[in-house]
Amino acid sequence: MITLNQQTKIPQHVAIIMDGNGRWAQARGKHRVFGHKHGVKSLRKAIAFASEKRIQALTIFAFSSENWQRPAQEVNMLMELFFTVLGSEIKKLHKHNIKLKIIGELTGFSTRLQKKVFEAEKMTEDNTGLVLNVAANYGGRWDITQATKKIAKLVAAGELDCNDIDEELVSKAITLHKLPAVDLMIRTGGDHRISNFLLWQLAYAELYFTDVLWPDFDALSFQHALDLFSGKERRFGQTSEQVSLKNTESN
What we know:
By secondary structure, the protein is of the alpha/beta class. Helices cover 47% and strands 14% of the residues. The chain has a six-stranded parallel β-sheet with strand order 3-4-2-1-5-6, sandwiched between helices. α3 (32-52) runs parallel beside α4 and α4 packs parallel to α5. The chain is globular, with a radius of gyration of 19 Å.
C-alpha cells in the first residue's frame, strides 16, 4: 500500500542542522546570543511547516557534544535558552499534538534542566502528531558507542551470542530506532558536512546544503528543500530499472 507521503514524495523523517545563528548576529553588529534567539523563531516556523506537510518526524541538532568547547559564556547562554524555550514552548507543542523527545547524553546537563526535559517529554508522550526530536549534547559517535555498550552488556550476561549481532540489532540499540529512517537532512549556513550528526541514521538520506543562515530559513526555504527531494530517485543500492519496476508493481 502506498502512503500519502510516498505518493507526494514528502519525506517521512527530516533532520536539520541549524547553522549560522552566530554569523547572522555578527553581520548585524550583535552578540551571538542575538542570533540564537532569532533562531528559535525559525525553529517555530520549521516545526509548523513540518506538521502542516504531515512529515512524521523532525530531528533538529540543538547542541552537539562538541559544542561544550565553545566559549563558556556562549555555552551558559545556550543552556539557559534551552531551559527557557522548553518552558515557554512545551504547552504550544502539546496543544498542536506534537510529541517531544530529547536525545543525547542528558547526564551532562544540570539537574534542573534534566527535570525540565523529563516534564516536557511526559506532557507530550501520548501525542500522535509530528514527532519532534531535539538532539542535545548529542553526537553520532556517542550514539553508536552507547548502542555498542548495550549490546556488549547482553553478550557479557550470556543473553546474546556475538554471532547474532547484525545491522538490525545495532539499529534497535541506536536512538530514533522506532521512527522511519531519515529521508532528508538539511544543513543551513553554507558548510557541507554532517558534523557528527546521526551518523548511523543518515546512511541513505538525501543531503541538502544551503547558504541560507538559520535565522533566515523560512517556509519557502523548507519548501525548496522538499521540492529538490521530490525530484530525487531514491535507489537504495538498486538500479533505476529495479526501482521503476517496483513502483509499477506497487501501483
